[in-house]
Amino acid sequence: MRILGVFAEGPNPAACLLKEGELVAFAEEERFCRVKTAPHSYPAKAAEYCVSAGGISIEEVDFVAFAWDCQKYAEDASGNSYMKRFYDGLCQSYRKDPITLENEARLLERFLPERVKHQIRQMVKYLDPVAE
Q1: Any idea what the Cα angle at residue 48 is, between residues 13 and 118, rounded to 5°?
Q2: How does residue 82 score in pLDDT terms, banded at 50, 70 and 90?
Q3: Which of 33-37, 45-49, 90-94 has the highest mean pLDDT?
Q4: How far apart are alpha carbons 81 and 3 in whole angstroms?
Q5: What pLDDT score does 52 carry?
């Protein structure tokens, strides 16, 4: 089994490739974009390197793992999520300034499962333009 691991949405985005449970390749995006910590970058070049270093193509990857629990951000039918309820609960105990509220809203959107899936699909298209 081949698993492409992806860490994004923060400083030091990176990718790794596991083959049969063994680490074959790991790289941080900053090594390819030449920007320290590569903030706000998606690790497409790092993923490209890992797949290449592993001697496989993206079609041979069995799974892509995203290093974050996005299900906590998934909205239910009423538009709420575990994390939204968590942030709302903090408002009852702590007074939040506008910057904190704005950052929370950004985080709630950033880790929506559909958004993360879309970014992974875009990365796969980058690695293989004919992939669906």
Answers
A1: 65
A2: very high
A3: 45-49
A4: 28
A5: 95
Nearest alpha-carbon partner for 3 in 50, 42, 44: 50
Residue with tokens 């009852």: 92
Query: Strand, coil or helix: what is 4?
Result: strand
- DSSP conformation class of 42: -
CA gap 71, 122 in Å, rounded: 20
Label residue 57 by pLDDT band (50, 70, 90). very high
Mind giving me the DSSP string for 13-41? -EEEEEETTEEEEEEETHHHH-STT-TT-
pLDDT value, residue 132? 57
Contact 4, 17 (CB under 8 A): yes
Interstrand relation of 22-28 and 2-7 (parallel, antiparallel or unpaired) = unpaired
Tokens of 76: 């239910």
- Tell me which H or E stretch contains 46: helix 44-53
Entry pTM:
0.81
